[in-house]
Write a structure and sequence with these properties.
Number of helices: 4
Order of helices and strands: HHEEHH
Distance between the termini: 90 Å
Helix content: 40-55%
Length: about 190
């Protein structure tokens, strides 16, 4: 049994200007069925294989390969971003004033939460930097030889210890525990400094 003449083969036969009457009888029938499908298709209709895919990020990180929801009347995707039905392609958005108000409030809450998280991250970073600077100064003081001024050195080390502890408490208040680190940058910060 011969293969049916599909869309691509039909296009190539038309491009080569092949006379359908010269084809075998089974190919003539397949040719006429293919031409009928092509002629009966709506004008300007994009074939399904050329329509866009959804492309939304799935839970495991890969882009969605489902077909976008298609508006057959206008021959275009139903939404501007061409999403499938599971990623909002059938969504009409809020229609009422109350629905639009709720969407606006949700957007404002999300933006405020993002700004707050960024501010907290900046405070944590500053506290961690201050703690590391205090630890470095304390360790430099411990290694510096000062035999003649042992009492002064002890008082200075105690003051530096208080600064380290204060910086550590600021880190804890901002939600970061630098002594619980364990990474290569926190190698010497986990031990007791007093």
């Amino acid at each position: 049994m011969r293969q049916k003449i599909g869309y691509k083969r039909l296009q190539s036969l038309i491009a080569k200007q092949v006379d359908p009457n010269t084809l075998p009888l089974e190919d003539q029938v397949a040719f006429s069925i293919g031409m009928g499908r092509l002629l009966l298709a709506p004008l300007g209709c994009t074939p399904q294989r050329e329509r866009p895919r959804c492309g939304a990020k799935c839970r495991d990180g890969h882009p969605c390969r489902a077909k976008a929801v298609w508006d057959a009347d206008n021959d275009c995707p139903r939404t501007p971003h061409a999403r499938c039905r599971q990623h909002g392609g059938l969504s009409t958005g809020p229609k009422t004033f109350e629905g639009r108000r709720r969407i606006g409030m949700a957007n404002r809450r999300r933006a405020e939460a993002r700004r707050l998280a960024q501010a907290q991250a900046a405070v944590r970073a500053e506290a961690l930097v201050a703690y590391r600077q205090a630890v470095e100064l304390y360790e430099a003081t411990c290694q510096h030889p000062m035999p003649a001024f042992a009492a002064l050195k002890a008082a200075f080390m105690q003051l530096q210890g208080y600064r380290v502890e204060r910086a550590y408490q600021q880190c804890l208040a901002s939600g970061v525990d630098p002594r619980a680190g364990g990474g290569p940058s926190d190698a010497g910060l986990g031990r007791n400094l007093f």
